[in-house]
Automatic annotation (TrEMBL):
GO molecular function: DNA binding; DNA-binding transcription factor activity; zinc ion binding
InterPro entries, alphabetized: AtrR-like, XnlR_reg_dom
Protein name: Xylanolytic transcriptional activator regulatory domain-containing protein
Residue ranges of domain Xylanolytic transcriptional activator regulatory in the record: 262-335
Keyword Membrane: no
Domain of life: Eukaryota
Keywords: Nucleus, Signal
Native species: Trichoderma guizhouense
Pfam families referenced in this protein's UniProt entry, alphabetically: Fungal_trans
Record carries keyword Signal: yes
Length: 418
């Protein structure tokens, strides 16, 4: 490539290689502003335009969110929407900007991988085989191994997500094996059995290596669980259990690169939760402290997954924070787990703030953009300070770093980079 062509686009090229530094970085490259808090403090109140140096009439846009939205064809020939905040679509967006800048110069074409390309899942809707037969006891793990897999899910995911009520799940698990089942349980226990299959699948996926044929570990249990999912009416037989089930299923599907399916199922869970008032603090109706704790944990887990999956898909948020009144769960068993969970929620709320500020529908930035961005960064810095106080990320010595702490720290830097 001619060096004269490369020179003017080099700053954008650098930004394009830093995939995590998306909208803030690109916008900073396309706009010039100067903010002086000292001058503002000395001069008294100023307008938003004066504070930020941005005129309402100025055409300042986020190049990743301008309309009309672009679609491309993936390797399967299907159209794919390049969502503004989608990390999957970001490199496609960056390459599009580069190609626009270099115009007639040759540039590589990036393959648009189809959804679910990393792992193959034999979905019932496209499978050529007959529906999965009911699982007999010889195809299920033993009670001891089931308890081990349950503890595995609790150890790895418990501080970050609420996927099941531990006491209720273990009691039903023991009852299930105590009867010496030869077939799957009846319809009255169908929802719990679906949850059981998903927990077993997650547990196996966390501790066992994947197979060489691109089939994800635990997929047999997941496929059977999907076949057993109820109709809309069936979800309301036990709405909180249904929300836990759909959160668990979505998390598994997202982890194996089936992001569209994961986003769809978490959307179903959100509709169930909203229709039952999970987003509001509940009282009355003989609601016990334990039930309230489960309600809060289930809602905030759903909130975390919905916000994160929406961001990854480049889709708008379905509920605004000012519509949520439910409190964070108070410590029940483990104080440390509640701290981790609370930090996870706070980071997700920060992510929602950033997305609302940067990824507007038209791509045009308001005159308060810089001010709002600074506010979001200050909130992020405050959470970072809390991390240093509450999370053990010391790398000295031989003791391993907490998996939950490391995961949240990575998430913190991801949110900061937006």
């Amino acid at each position: 490539m001619n060096s004269n062509v490369l020179r003017p686009i080099f700053p954008i090229l650098v930004l394009a290689t830093q995939v995590n530094v998306s909208a803030f970085a690109v916008i900073a490259e396309t706009m010039k502003y100067k903010v002086s808090e000292d001058e503002t403090d000395a001069g008294g109140a100023t307008s938003d335009a004066e504070t930020t140096g941005i005129d309402d009439a100025a055409e300042i846009c986020n190049p990743l969110a301008t309309t009309p939205s672009k679609v491309i064809e993936d390797t399967e020939g299907r159209r794919r929407f390049l969502g503004p905040s989608s990390t999957w679509a970001y490199i496609q967006q960056a390459m599009s900007i580069l190609q626009h800048c270099i115009k007639d110069q040759p540039s590589p074409q990036l393959p648009a991988t189809s959804d679910g390309g990393a792992f193959v899942l034999d979905w019932p809707s496209t499978s050529q085989a007959t529906p999965t037969a009911p699982l007999t006891i010889d195809r299920l793990p033993s009670l001891t191994y089931s308890l081990y897999l349950t503890d595995t899910v609790k150890f790895y995911l418990g501080p970050m997500y609420h996927l099941y009520d531990e006491d209720i799940f273990r009691q039903r698990l023991n009852d299930f094996y105590a009867t010496g089942p030869s077939v799957e349980p009846s319809r009255s226990s169908r929802l719990w059995f679906i949850q059981y299959l998903l927990i077993m699948a997650l547990g196996k996926a966390l501790i066992l290596p994947g197979s060489s044929d691109k089939r994800p570990t635990g997929c047999d249990y997941v496929l059977r669980a999907i076949e057993l999912l109820p109709d809309v009416h069936g979800y309301y037989i036990d709405s909180i259990l249904s929300v836990e089930i759909l959160c668990c299923l979505s998390l598994y599907l997202q982890s194996i690169d089936h992001r569209n399916a994961a986003y769809n199922y978490i959307g179903q869970a959100l509709r169930i939760a909203l229709s039952q008032g999970f987003h509001r603090e509940l009282t009355g109706a003989s609601l016990t402290a334990k039930e309230l704790y489960r309600h809060r944990c289930a809602w905030w887990t759903l909130y975390i997954l919905d916000k994160r999956f929406s961001s990854l898909m480049g889709a708008p948020n379905c509920i605004q924070d000012n519509e949520i009144t439910v409190l964070l769960p108070e410590p029940d068993h483990d104080q440390g787990d509640c701290q981790m969970f609370g930090l996870h929620v706070r980071l997700t709320r920060l992510l929602a703030d950033v997305l609302r500020t940067v990824y507007t529908v038209t791509g045009r930035l308001k005159s308060t953009y810089v001010k709002d961005a600074q506010k979001a960064l200050r909130k992020t810095a405050a959470v970072g300070k809390e991390f240093r106080q509450d999370c053990d990320l010391t790398t000295m010595g031989t003791a391993p770093i907490s998996r939950a702490s490391a995961t949240l720290m990575l998430y913190y830097h991801q949110v900061s980079s937006f």
